[in-house]
């Protein structure tokens, strides 16, 4: 440390002041740029001794104050902050904002914006060294950045040397449904159709959607025989995009609740009475005879 601060320890009475003397000890410092140091002062409060009657229930708070100490060599001229700040140069390197300072002065930002967004206080605390540069990581500040979440498959291993090849990329984007078979609660136009096991796979647009065949949609009450978009489609082949075949139709799957909602315009539905059962699901019953007699 090229400076000596005296006194190193002193008693400070209430409502009084203490003067510190800072002197160089002869250790060499750069002559072409500023140097910065921190002076740390700790205030130790007095407390009553244990045998004092008023010593019970005490709480002592220690206050630490840190101050910056700048040393400017005699050869450096005093310049206005505006003149120095205008020489700063910024550029972006990936997710980092880099500030280049060609001047011999330390610089601290009071406010810094990237676009219309201000950087947070942690980045503002970083000083730019003289004839050097400083990096601010944009992803940790308040600047929005487009980046997907990443889940390390190795964390699924029960042992550190166990190889894990599970593909977790489908979980990297919020709201995305992984491909697979799900036992879902199926609702059509807010009417519960019961539980069904459906396969969810990517369609031609790369979106994971439930596989709905024309035959299954007809079973759910969609009037596929009257809709021209369904003519010529194989009955047991899943449709590519239901919302394209039926305008204003909506498909929504809540993975957390395992609930699949189909919203179909009423004009595309079969004209059946509410609560009716398809005759194809009727059975022949059992042979029976009803008899009655009276005396």
Number of strands: 14
| Structural class label | mainly beta
Which radius of gyration do the C-alpha atoms yield? 38 Å
Examine the coordinates and then state which fold CATH places here, giving the name of the CATH topology of the largest domain: Ubiquitin-like (UB roll)
Q: Average pLDDT, to the nearest integer?
A: 81
Domain Pili assembly chaperone N-terminal: 2-76
Domain Pili assembly chaperone C-terminal: 100-141
Domain PapC N-terminal: 150-295
Keywords: Chaperone, Fimbrium biogenesis, Periplasm, Signal
Short description:
By secondary structure, the chain is mainly beta. Helix content is 6%, strand content 27%.
List the helices and strands and how they pair.
Blueprint: E1 3-6, E2 21-24, E3 35-43, E4 63-71, H1 81-85, E5 89-93, E6 96-101, E7 113-114, E8 117-118, H2 121-124, E9 132-137, E10 180-188, E11 191-202, E12 208-210, H3 214-219, H4 242-245, E13 250-254, E14 259-263
Parallel strand pairs: 10-14
Antiparallel strand pairs: 1-2, 3-4, 5-6, 6-9, 7-8, 10-11, 11-12, 13-14
Keywords: Chaperone, Fimbrium biogenesis, Periplasm, Signal
Domain Pili assembly chaperone C-terminal: 100-141
Domain PapC N-terminal: 150-295
Question: Can you put this structure into words, describing what you see?
Answer:
- This protein is mainly β.
- It folds into three domains: 1-45 and 62-76, Immunoglobulins (Immunoglobulin-like), CATH 2.60.40; 80-137, Immunoglobulin-like (Sandwich), CATH 2.60.40.10; 180-268, PapC, N-terminal domain (Ubiquitin-like (UB roll), Roll), CATH 3.10.20.
- It is built from four helices and 14 strands.
- It has helices spanning 81-85, 121-124, 214-219, 242-245; strands at residues 3-6, 21-24, 35-43, 63-71, 89-93, 96-101, 113-114, 117-118, 132-137, 180-188, 191-202, 208-210, 250-254, 259-263.
- The strands form five sheets. It has a five-stranded mixed beta sheet, with no helix packed on it. It has a three-stranded antiparallel beta sheet with strand order 5-6-9, with no helix packed on it.
- A hairpin with a 2-residue loop joins strand 7 and strand 8 (117-118).
- Belongs to the periplasmic pilus chaperone family.
- InterPro entries: Ig-like_fold, PapC_N, PapC_N_sf, PapD-like_sf, Periplasmic_pilus_chap, Pili_assmbl_chap_C_dom_sf, Pili_assmbl_chaperone_bac, Pili_assmbl_chaperone_C.
- Residues 100-141 form the Pili assembly chaperone C-terminal domain.
């Amino acid at each position: 440390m090229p400076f000596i601060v005296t006194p190193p320890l002193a008693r400070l009475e209430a409502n009084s002041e203490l003067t510190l003397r800072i002197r160089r000890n002869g250790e060499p410092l750069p002559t072409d740029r500023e140097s910065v140091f921190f002076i740390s002062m700790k205030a130790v409060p007095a407390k009553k001794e244990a045998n004092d009657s008023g010593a019970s229930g005490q709480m002592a708070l220690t206050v630490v104050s840190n101050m910056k100490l700048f040393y400017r060599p005699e050869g450096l001229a005093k310049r206005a902050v505006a003149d120095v700040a205008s020489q700063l140069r910024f550029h972006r390197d990936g997710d980092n904002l880099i500030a280049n300072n060609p001047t011999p002065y330390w610089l601290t930002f009071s406010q810094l914006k990237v676009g219309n967004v201000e950087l947070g206080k942690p980045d503002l605390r970083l000083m730019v060294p003289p004839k050097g540069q400083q990096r601010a990581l944009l992803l940790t500040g308040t600047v929005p950045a487009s980046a997907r979440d990443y889940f390390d498959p190795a964390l699924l291993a029960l042992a550190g040397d166990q190889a894990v090849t599970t593909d977790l990329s489908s979980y990297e984007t919020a709201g995305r449904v992984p491909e697979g078979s799900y036992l879902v609660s199926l609702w059509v136009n807010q009417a519960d159709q019961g539980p069904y096991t459906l396969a969810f796979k990517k369609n031609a647009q790369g979106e994971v959607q439930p596989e709905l065949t024309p035959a299954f949609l007809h079973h759910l009450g969609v009037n596929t025989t009257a809709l021209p978009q369904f003519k010529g489609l194989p009955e047991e082949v899943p449709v590519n995009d239901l919302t394209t075949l039926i305008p204003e139709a909506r498909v929504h799957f809540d993975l957390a609740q395992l609930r699949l909602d189909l919203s179909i315009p009423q004009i595309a539905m079969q004209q059946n009475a509410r609560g009716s059962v398809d005759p194809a699901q009727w059975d022949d019953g059992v042979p029976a005879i009803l008899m009655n007699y009276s005396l």
